[in-house]
Amino acid sequence: MIGSEGVSENTRDIEASVVTDFSDRMSYGGYLDLSTLLAAQRPISRPEHHDELLFIVQHQTTELWLKLVLHELETACRMLRADELAPALKCIARVKHIQKTLTEQWSVLATLTPTEYGQFRGVLGNASGFQSYQYRAVEFVLGNKNRRMLQVFESDATASAILTRALEEPSLYDEFLRLLARAGYPIPADVLDRDVTLAWTFRPELVPVFASIYADTDDHWAAYETCEELVDLEDNFQLWRFRHLKTVERIIGNKTGTGGSSGASFLRRALELTFFPELYAVRTEIPG
């Protein structure tokens, strides 16, 4: 049956202008190094379990997205240091979209039943997402720093270097507060001079600063917009943590984690960690 021009018997013609000879041209697979990427999924269960590929792809794609998240957050920090707020917000906006993708991705892993996972879980040994240095670096860049985490990565020089740098550099929030101070906002000196290798903890003296921003958004629009973007980041991160917890509960219940943690209860405690607590506390102070 003849359809629209160029389509016959439910088959589309290849246009004459389409490049088909890649003997001396850059190809899609070459540019993306697909031969390396697609050879990186190596199930080790024997006989190979059908669902192990799902488990590997889920975690590898997560690591690819985390690589991009780190790239964007580190650039946002540099932009804030340079008082370039607009490009920093563009980076944060991209991270927010990635976060939504990462959260939705848990629904794919959730198709793995307890029986199916139990049939190949043993081959993981002590391998665990807890050992994702990129995830930990994202936490560090956002302010949830913990020097003790470095011991998990002592045997990996690359991971140790990345995490040490993230630990020792100011977080995204530190950079935002420094930008506000340069713009004339009354950020206390001890906040600006704090030890940035420590986890951020709630500073009540910042709440009035943010309250003044929220009280007059027209005059403080740039600061106000950035505050809301940071709240979006934390909301998204907590949703990811929650979805992770619920997926683990669904698949392994209250079993201990392969990495030695208590499993679901350990993940549940992560929901108590915060990045920007003053931006939530200020909501109580806003009239209405």
Query: What's the overall geometry?
Result: globular
Oligomer: single chain
Number of helices: 13
**Fraction of residues in helix:** 55-70%
Number of strands: 2
Kindly report the average pLDDT value. 96
How does the SSE layout of this entry go?
Blueprint: E1 7-8, E2 11-12, H1 28-32, H2 34-37, H3 52-81, H4 85-109, H5 114-118, H6 133-142, H7 157-168, H8 172-182, H9 189-192, H10 207-215, H11 221-252, H12 264-270, H13 277-285
Antiparallel strand pairs: 1-2
Helix pairs in contact: 3-4, 3-6, 3-8, 4-11, 6-7, 10-13, 11-12
Describe the structure in your own words.
With 288 residues, this protein is mainly α. The chain is 57% helix and 1% strand. It contains 13 helices and two strands; from the N terminus they run E-E-H-H-H-H-H-H-H-H-H-H-H-H-H. A two-stranded antiparallel ribbon has the order 1-2. Helix 6 runs parallel beside helix 7. The N and C termini lie far apart (66 Å). The model has no long low-confidence stretch (mean pLDDT 96).
Summarize the structure.
With 288 residues, the chain is mainly alpha-helical.
Which properties best describe this structure?
two-stranded antiparallel ribbon, 288 residues, mainly alpha
